[in-house]
């Protein structure tokens, strides 16, 4: 649509179609009983490589601003929703052993991804990923908004309520401790900040 038609003459329409096709990937996956989040992820990867590069300069600017704005809104909404869920959800089940086990599992799984994958990537790279960068990737990473969104979808049984409570606590812990500790950790690992 963006490459072989004259949509570039209508930047607003071009941006609208870009957005609607992204949204249709989510809706199609949900309608088929699949994970819409993963569909949007792969749609975004594909659009970043192909569709975005075929947009007109005006549409590129509009599309970038639209998605930055939506990112800002979504981030605020999800954290407000998490805060509300922490204090208004009636059926929290706190199992300290399960919560501790989940924390350990998250960190072990993260380490099992970061270090071996960095090693494999470094085999074929001239500019290697330094150890301090690997440690920073281990420390930072995603904060768990997707885990929260998946956990809150079904909280009918006690095990699912316990899973939801645990996911919520892990998200809050990583946001407060790791999110707040990002700048000191960068300094400690001697990673130069480029602003």
How many DSSP-defined strands?
Answer: 0
Taken as a percent bin, the fraction of beta residues is under 5%
Question: Which percent range fits the helix content?
Answer: over 70%
- CA(first)-CA(last) distance: 37 Å
How many individual domains? 2
Given helix and strand content, the structural type is mainly alpha
The ordered string of helix (H) and strand (E) elements is HHHHHHHH
Counted by DSSP, the helix tally is 8
Subcellular location: Membrane
GO molecular function, one term: sodium:proton antiporter activity
Membrane topology: Multi-pass membrane protein
InterPro entries: Cation/H_exchanger_CPA1, Cation/H_exchanger_TM
Explained architecture:
The chain is mostly helical. It has two domains: 1-88, no CATH class; 95-194, no CATH class. Helix content is 74%, strand content 0%. The chain contains eight helices and no strands. It has helices at residues 11-31, 36-51, 57-88, 96-123, 131-139, 145-152, 158-180, 182-188. The longest helix is centred in the middle third of the chain and has 32 residues, at 57-88. The mean pLDDT is 86.
